[in-house]
Amino acid sequence: MIDDYLRFKTPGQFIQAMIDQNDWTQRVVAVMLEVEESLLNRIIKGKKSVSAELAIRLSEVFGVPAKHFLELQSSFDLAQAELMVVPDPARFTRTQLFGKLPVSEMIKRGWLDATDVRDVPKVEAALVKFFRAKSPEEILLPHAAKKTNVNAEATPVQMAWLFRVKEIAEEMLVPPYSESAVRAAVPKLKELLISGAAIRKVPRILTECGIRFVIVEALPSSKIDGVCFWIDDTPVIGMSLRYDRIDNFWFVLRHEIEHAIQLHGRESAMLDFDLEGERAGTGTTVPEEERIANEAAAEFCVPQKSLQNFIARKSPFFYERDIIGFAATMRVHPGLVAGQLRRKLDEAGVKGAYSRFTNHLVKIRSIIAPSATVDGWGDVVPVG
After folding, report:
1. E strand residue ranges, the chain
2. Which of 7, 95, 136, 232 would suit a FRET pair with 73, their CA atoms being 20 to 30 Å apart?
């Protein structure tokens, strides 16, 4: 009987069976347990639960492991709860939303019209509005992805960032887009590479071409670098500046500009993340559209043939004077040489490549922020 205890539905039934097996009475057992007979009777009838302490006493009296009584009690309690609790389909949706989206962070940044994450109805209504859905059930992928025409790789956190970029971009006024103007602007942007301070001119140049340029701080764990998509006939370039460095800024920007020039993102938003690693490469594992954008970005930052010659001449030792001298020859900031050099060394399998030449990688967010549309780092762009 001890090994077959699971055939009983309640611990009370098991206790009564053990009493009968020993030809005892409830009164006698109550004396052995040092409890009131009425309490034992209620437990046997399933009106009172077996506590851990009582399970130990029962174990001592009947020679049965205490966990047997507690397992039966737990199973009985769960069965009772399943009868009493009404299933709530909305709980699954709520779990998905609050579990996969950084709701608290979105509230903090002013993206949602809510003040307390615990105010579930208001938060859900704000999320529905933010994602332009009809109900909370329609918010998360794949529904949101289809509505925004973004590839299935995007995570809910990345989708939230993308929707914020779109929300801000739709409020911006720019001249009609001109592909020829963008192509003509690339050499102008190239002239800015010599100085970190010149980055402040970027937003104006892009605006004059008809590009909506938005900087939105990345959400935690999103790994977002940038995006290119279209609103009607106007391209939108969004950047996160998650790496506040001159080399990363120019690589990501030129990457997104190439997407716009090639008309990428018209059917599906080109959501770019992890451009510090393999996704910045040009190998066969990189999607064709990304390979084209990567090649254009790398060539823009530092002419790749010249860079390869520099590496061949100086490897394995890259001294400061060499980097500075090569950068001057290329008419770019040393930070761009450092950034491209780190990429090449990483691709070649050099350990710790991304920890080298850091003194050249100047910060640029404070330079570009005053002239750009920036959402994050304490600033909230008003929309609606």
Report:
1. 212-216, 224-231, 234-239, 270-273, 373-375
2. 95
